[in-house]
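Exercise 7.
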Amino acid sequence: MDEQAMVAMYGTLDRMHAWRGWHWWPDADPFEVCVGAILVQNTSWMNVERALTRLREAGALDLRAMARLEPVELEELVRPSRQYRQKAKKLRAFIDTAERAGGFERLLALDMGVLRQRLVDTWGIGPETADCIVCYASGKPALVVDAYTARLLTRLGHGPGGAGYEAWQRWMLDRLPADRETYARLHALIVLHCKHLCRKRAPKCGECDLRWECTFARAKAAGDDVGRG
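Solution. The predicted structure, written as tokens, is:
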């Protein structure tokens, strides 16, 4: 897959899913993006929305307000996101990182490489969460890759195989124009596509406009034909 094919895939995904809602489109609140990126680890976005609602209703969806909460209060507010004690500690660690940078706005204003490293050095924040914050909260050109990315590209017959996060990210970056909006929208569209159509179990290949070039869909169709025969 070259850059032209990757851009074509982006266009197809955009035609299929641009109408769907996405929680981190450009008008998302930066602090809420950061909190959501931490809370969504190992859980569904539906659970995160419940936790964000509780934080919002408590007036705690703000760095200074959250910092004033007692540990047990923060744990209770984020309980719907699962692993709530660990996630409350991760939010505390993120707050500490922001405060050491001179505040939330100053943290996000750091150069991209410095910001990403500060985040990765923060307890509980790995490369994927860091790139979510860099891209969707600070508006810098970081590309987020995840299990959905690997699923879709592998089924299409592309990608670096079973490689880890950095290898997948490098493979994608080598085939995309260096543009933050493209990175942000492509990640969103891949997530939406894999949640609604390219599901882990019972994928809806018949509704996918990428099925004509998808090795997984062709193999599935061939197997269905054999079964009917």
